[in-house]
Design a protein that fits this description.
Blueprint (H helix, E strand, L loop, with lengths): L1 H9 L1 H21 L9 E10 L5 H16 L5 E9 L2 E8 L5 H13 L11 E6 L4 E9 L5 H16 L4 E7 L2 E9 L1 H7 L4 H4 L7 E10 L2 E9 L4 H5 L2 E3 L2 E2 H4 E9 L2 E4 L2 E2 L1 E7 L5 H18 L3 E8 H31 L2 H8 L1 H16 L5 H14 L1 H14 L6 H24 L9 H36 L12 H12 L2 H20 L12 E8 L5 H16 L4 E8 L3 H4 L9 E8 L5 H9 L8 E7 L10 E7 L3 H15 L5 E6 L4 E9 L6 H12 L2 E8 L2 E7 L8 H5 L2 E4 L2 E4 H4 E9 L2 E4 L2 E10 L4 H12 L9 E6 H31 L3 H11 L1 H12 L5 H31 L4 H32 L10 H29 L1 H20 L1
Helix pairs in contact: 1-16, 1-17, 2-13, 10-11, 11-12, 11-14, 11-32, 12-15, 12-17, 13-17, 14-17, 14-32, 15-16, 15-17, 15-32, 16-17, 16-28, 16-31, 18-32, 18-33, 19-30, 19-33, 27-28, 28-29, 28-31, 29-31, 29-33, 30-33, 31-32, 31-33, 32-33
Amino acid sequence: MKSFINGAFRNKAAMIIIVIMVLGMGILSYTKLPMEFLPEADNPQVTVSVIGPGYDASSMDRSVTGPLEKSLSAIKGKTNVFSTSGDGFSQVNLNFDSSTNMKEAKLEVEKAVNSVNLPDNVSPPYVVQFNTSMIPISFVTLTFADGVSDAQKETLEQQVLEDFRAIDGVGEVQMSGKSQPKVSIVPDAAKLAAKGVPLQALYGVLQGRSASASVGESTLDGQIVNLNVSASLQDVESVKKLPVAAGVTLGDVANVTFDDDKESTFRIDGKDALEFVISKGANSNAVNVGKGVDEIIEKYNEENKSVNLKVMISTSEQVVHSVNSMMREVLLGALFATIVILIFMRNVRATLVTIVSIPLSLAMTLYLLDLSGITLNILTLGGVAVAVGRLVDDSIVVIENIFRRLQKEKFSPELVIDATKEVARAITASTLTTIAVFLPMSLLRGGLQSFLLPFALTMTYSLLSSLLVALTVIPLMSSGVLRNSQIKEHQPSKRFVKLLEWNLRFKWLPIIAAFLLLIGSIATYISMPKGAIDSSSAENLTVSLEYKPDTPVAEVMENGSKLEAFLMNREEVEWVTLANGNSADAAKYGSVSSPTLVSYMLKMKEGADAEKVMEAVKSERANYPGAELNTGTGNFMAGGSSTQVFVDITGNDLDSIGKTAEEVIAKIKPVKDVLKVESNQEEKKTVYTLQVNPTEAKAGDIAMQLQGMLNPVPIGAITVDGQSVQVLLEPTLKPKSETDLSSLTVMTDSGPKPVSSVAKWVKTEQSTTFFHKDGKSYVRVSASVEPSQLSAVGAEIKKQLADVKPPEGVKLNIGGASADQSADMMSLFSMMLVSIGIVYLIMVITFKTLRAPLAIMTSILFVPIGAVLGLIVTGVTPDFTAIFGVVMLIGIVVTNAIVLIDRVKHNEIDRNMSIREALLEAAGTRMRPILMTAIATVGAMLPLVFGSSESGSIVSQSLAIVVIGGLVVSTLLTLVIVPCIYELLHFRKSANQRKTIATTVREVAAE
C-alpha cells in the first residue's frame, strides 16, 4: 500500500493530468449518458390478446381462449397461466420464472398462438412482453378543424403517425380513436316482398361493379396504346342506384346510409380526437425522443391549420425533472457534508482538500456508468444521492489522521505518506465491506435484481473511486495545501474516555441494556404494519364509469357524455379525456376492456385541490343508477392497484367455486382497513342458447344462417374521396322478444322450417367474464387495502381464511401485493444474511483473526434500534425500501467499528499497549473521525428526507430515515459497546494484563 501512495507522490505531474482527465471524462459522460425514468428490466410475463366484436363471453371462452390455452400448455419456463374471456375480448397472461429469457419466451408464445385456427371476424392474436423501456414517452392528442373531410383526416393522421415513427430512437407508436367509416345497407322486408326480390339478391349487388383491369394493346392512329377497363363507386347515391332486379334499384328496397363509426372512442374536452402513445426503443435517450415529439408537434401546429396537436403528458419531462431533482439533492448533500467537515476541522484548507473527493468520485462514477452501458435514471442517481455522504468518509479518515499527526509532529511529505498508510488498511476494509453488501444480489428475484443492479453498481463505482482518491489525491494535495497551515492541537474528550472506562469496568450493564433495546426494536418492527411504495400523483385523476355488460353501448355513451360534461365544467380541471371500446392498436399492447366501461383522465390545474374534485365525482354516483362510478389519483403508466390482496379459488366445479368465493368474501369484508371486496363472478348476463335436435337439423348450418341473419355481413367496398369504405349488409332480423326468436325461419335438409320445430331456446344467467388459471376455472376475490396497512391486512386475511374449509377439489391461493411484498422482503433478508457472511470474511482476511471481526460485527446488531426509532419518531410506515436501507446499513455501520478496532490492533501490536489501554486510546483518538464520517453521511442524506422522492424509486424518504436513524444510534453504540464486546472476547488476556499492571503499580508504590 505504501508503494502505491509513494507512486502518486513521485508522479505529481501525471496525477494532475489524470485528475483533469477524470473531471473532463465525467462531464462528457454526463452529457452523453442516456436518460430514462427506470433502468431497463423485463417483466416476466407474456400477454396474448384477441378482439372479437359481436362475440359474447361464453363464445370467446369456448372458441378463442380454450384453443389458445391448449396451444400454450407446452411453453417452457412458465409458472402459471391466467386467462380472461369477456364480451368481445380474450386475454391470456403467462407468468415465467425469473431465470427465463423473456425475448425467447415471447418468440415461443408467438409461434404457438400463430398455429391456432381462430373463428372468422376475430382479430389475430396480439402478443406483447413488457419492458420498462416501453414506458411511454409522450401522450399526444390530434384534433381536426371543422370542415376537414374523412379522406383528408386519414391522410393527415397517417402523415403524423409516420413522422412520429421516424423520430430517432422511437420504439412504438400506438394510435387509438381512429375513425372507421362504413356504408350501411338496411333491407326493408315489406318492400322486398312487394317487389318480389329475394334477400339473397342483395349479397351480390356490388360484385363486378368496381374494377380496374388491363385488357390488352392496340394500334390506334399509327401508335401503340394500352386498353384498360375501369369503374368505381364513389358515393352513397351511386350505391342506391345499383340494380338488384329488373326495374328495381337497391334504394327501392333498402335504406343506404354513410356512417362515420370509430374503432374505439377517444375524446379530449368533448371533441373527437386521436391519441398517440409514443414509446422509446431500447437504449434510446428518453429526453431526445421527447424533444423530437415536441418538434413535430410545433411544426404541424405552425404549418397546418387543419390539425391541432397537443401533448397531454410527457414522461421525458418527468425524466428531466427526476434527474434535476436528484442532482439537486446530491449537491445539497455535498454541501451539508462540507459544513460538517468545516465545523469539526475548523480549518478551511483541510476542508477543501477533503471535499475534492466528491467531484472526482462522481466524475469517475459517471464515466464507469457510461462504460457499463447503464443509463441515468432515478435509481442510478439515487445511488449517487445515497453514496455522496460516504464519498468523503475515506478522505475524512485520511485527512484527520494527517491533521492529528501534524498537531504534534513537524510537516514533511514522509509524515503525510506514513499517516495515510496508517489508516489505509482500515479505509480499504471499510470500503470493501460496504461494497460487499451488494455482492449477493444473485439471490434476489428477477425484477428486484434488474432494478437493484444499476443502484448497486453506482454505489460500488462511487465508493471504489472515493477510496482511490483518498489514497492518492488527498495525501498529495495535503502535502501542498497544509505545508504552512497553522493547526491547533486537538485533545480527545476526557469525559468520553472516563465514560468508556466506566463501561469497560461494568461492561455487562451496557451490553445487556443494548441487547434489551435490540429485542424491543425487533418486536416493535414485527408489530408495525408494512406499507406499499406509493406511486400516485395528484396532478392527474382517473375516473371510471362502468355499467353491467348487458347495458346497450348507446346508453353507456349517453351517460358517459353527461359525466364528461360535468367533469369539464369543474374549474380545477385543465382538460378531460374520455375513452371507450377496444382497438387493434391497444390490443397489441395487451390493453382490452369491457365495451360498457368509460374511462376518463383529468389533468389538474396547478395548485388545484384534487381531493375536492374526487369528492365531487363520488357525490355524482346517485345520478348514474346501475353504474359503478370510481375515482382515484393516478397516472398514464398506472397498471392497476398496487395495494390489492387476491384470493384465487380454483377447481373444476363452478358451483363449488362460487359458494367458496361467497364464504371468502364474507370472511374478508369485516377485516379492518379493507376498503372494498369484489369478485370477478358477481356480474351475470342473460344468455339464450339454441339447443338443436341433431336428428332434425345440423347445428353448424343453423349457426351460420343465424349469424348471417342477426349480424352485419360485409359485401364489398367503395371509394369515397380517395378513401376505401367497407359496405355492410345490416341484419334483416332484429328480434325484440323470446317469441320473435322462436318464430325465426331456418333452412334444413327438408326445406325451410320455424326454428322452434327443430330446436328450443334455453334461457340462462351466465357470467359476463370467464377466468381460468392453468386451464381450470377460478374465481378471484380482490380486496383493496389501505396502502400503509398492507402487511397487517394481508396477515389478518390469511388468519381469517384459515377457518374456510373448501370442498374437495377446490383450492385457495392468496396472492397480490401482500404476497409480492412478503416475497420481496424474504429475498432481501436472504441477501442480508449472505452480506453479513461476506463482510465477516473480508474482515477476517484484513485482521487475520476471528475475534476482532466478531467484535466489529456486533455494530450491525444496533442497526434495528436506530432504524425502528427513526420510523417511530417520523411516523413513516416501513416499506420495501426501508428493508433495503437496513441491508445498506450493514456495509455502512461496520466502517466505524473497523476504523476503531484497526487503531486498537495498531496500539496492541506496534505500541505494546494492554487491551484496555489500547481501547481507551483508540476510542479517544478515533472518536472525531467516526463522528465526522457519520454526521457527514447523515447530513448528505437529509435532502432525501425533506425532498420529494420520485415515483417508483427505491431511494425514498423511508430509506433515508432508516439509514439516518440506524447510523446515528449504531455510531453512538459502536463507540461505547464495541470496546466492551472486544474486551469480553479477550476477557482472560485482558484480565491477566490488568492484574500484571496492578501488581506492577503496587510494587512501584511499595518502593
